[in-house]
Fold:
Amino acid sequence: MLLIDLVSVSQSVSSTRSRSKKIELLADTLRRLVPVEAPVAVSYLTGKPRQGRLGAGWATVYGMECAPAAEPGLEILEVDSVLEGLSITSGAGSKQRREELLCGLLARATKAEQDFLRGLILRNLRQGALEGVMADAVAAAVGVGPDRVRRAAMLQGDLVAVASRALAEGPDSLGLSRINLFTPVQPMLAKTATSAGEAVTALGEALVERKLDGARIQVHREGDRVAVFTRNLRDVTEGLPEVVATVLGFPANALILDGEVLLIGPTGSPQQFQDSMSSFGSDQSEGGVALSSFFFDCLHLDGSDLIDAPLRERRLALASAVPTASLVESLTTDDPTLAERFFDDAVAAGFEGVVVKDPRQPYEAGRRGSGWLKVKPTHTLDLVILAAEWGSGRRQGWLSNLHLGASDGRGGYVMLGKTFKGLTDQMLEWQTARFLAIEDHREGHVVHLKPEVVYEIAFDGLQRSTRYPEGVALRFARVKRLRDDKSAEEADTIDTVLGFLTK
Structure:
């Protein structure tokens, strides 16, 4: 298949809001693939090179000017071969070699193909063909219900592999899709709720559980063998010997546990996220600080798969296999007032908030299910927009990624991070026109602004960062609204921002 065929369907998918139309467009393209092309096409259409990270950054990808080809002629397998070369290039002279490979590829691509390739390499396509849509498109292409493909992908942890086999071998390759020990399962995710009380009211009797601000882990054990996987299904067993030792002490022969690993301070309170991450994989024998593991779900226990069982049953299995000291603290209640009190106590003890869970729900692996609702305290600041970056993919032609700044109290501004979250199409259109009118200067794809526009920014907390002058950055920043009633001089100060470190 030609690359231009993928580019065309990518553009079509990006330009439609209809999920069913996206699935139809993708399925039609998938049916026309030959088996060897399937892993490449599925990867590209979900916005990722098959090889993962390629070692080429924005400056390299956009820094070279290669005249586009007049006519399309690149095959997707040719593209994949070049990207494979990029991924394995290392050592002396690797920068020049990468540039030669990339420029050679771009010179054979049309302008539309060049734009697609740049977005693909930087994993910044934002074309609307996310994994959920792609799974449904694969199902349509091979003539099965979407649940079969989704289930196979969530249990095998690799949609590209599942899709490639289904397209090459037919739906029988999807199999019965049982859990396999030491093959990580995609984690279940939580939606957001406004308050713990509202979440309990919505669910009825619910499990209210402390939300730990650590690294999500999934632990598999069979006999003396233990493997630890991250949220992204990466094997990190060697870096977490303390987790391996803990799980080997549990009274079970075979299990799969869902949990978190984090650093607990001397008073029993959790340390900040970046402290836990800086200790992630540290060697205790060389002075590293041991991380503690806590578990909140059990997907398999001694030969029994529990993924389809309700949470109530999974929690009973968890309690039978994991000592109380390694369980996440929780409360079962149908009283919104008790749920709010538990939330307040969790936050006061230094935890990130709570997750409210429906005890009747199965484990919806790989999905942000309605059975889990996370509640976190939200902070807001009124910040000045210092600059904005030109968008790509669906946001092509709009100024999107915002540089956020607080007043330093002396007429200047301190940058605290970036965000493009929370921006509607209407806001993108408005701010592009407004920002160009107050443009100060440009650096590449960044448009620096006169400090005139103030946005209210919601965020979940602060984290230390050497990237910014005051050594802190906002966590999970997103735009809440335009503060057209405030001037830049009235924006929040860096002293106000730093005050959140003590809250």
